[in-house]
Design goal:
Layout (H helix, E strand, L loop, with lengths): L19 E6 L8 H18 L6 E2 L2 E2 L9 E7 L2 E10 L14 H6 L21 E9 L4 H16 L4 E6 L1 H9 L5 E2 L4 E3 L2 E9 L5
Parallel strand pairs: 6-7
Antiparallel strand pairs: 1-4, 2-3, 4-5, 5-6, 7-10, 8-10, 9-10
Keywords: Autoinducer synthesis, Quorum sensing, S-adenosyl-L-methionine, Transferase
Pfam family, one: Autoind_synth
InterPro entries: Acyl_CoA_acyltransferase, Autoind_synthase
Amino acid sequence: MEMQIQQANFNKIAEIPAQYDVKFLSLPDGVQHWNLVNSYLKLRKQVFIDRLDWPLFHADDLEFEQYDSFDTTYVVATNGDQVVGGARLRRTDQLSGGGHLRYSYMIRDACLGLLPGLPKNLCHAIPPMDRSVWELTRMVVDGPREVTRMILQATNDFLCKKDAASVLFLGSPAFLRMAKRWNWPAHQLGPVTGNADGRFQVIECPVRRPQ
């Protein structure tokens, strides 16, 4: 499954210590903080490959793939100088790659049969390419349980400023239950499915506007 989060009682979230922060980094503006992106890619390798033994591509101590491109936005959570979590954020109308094979985003490409490692039946219908819809994948947290909510809340605020309508997640069934505890109007776009890495499903959540 895509999201690796700490299991916790999310009905009561403690105050997040002041030293925790979330940054949104993309090129070229985020180049001065790109060391944080490298640390996030290292964390992905430590969790997904070293700890969970997922058969993912990596080079040296970094895990990355075709969706880690110049038009990707990275969400990076830090505790002081230490990266404690992060995620990959892409607008769904973007294309990357060259030649005859152009990639859009992970969930859609899986449904089109372009990603052999993921089932084609993730969604009941092929998800859209729409500039108002974003995808969040490769979320990983290796820190206090409050970091998960901090990342998701910051992502919602970021997407609100981008006039996004909704965000798609690929995560475990527990993520949908967690969202409901927070009273987020999340809903599933397909069945619970899986592969050797675990069980997961596609979830869509509308971007919440300030009250």
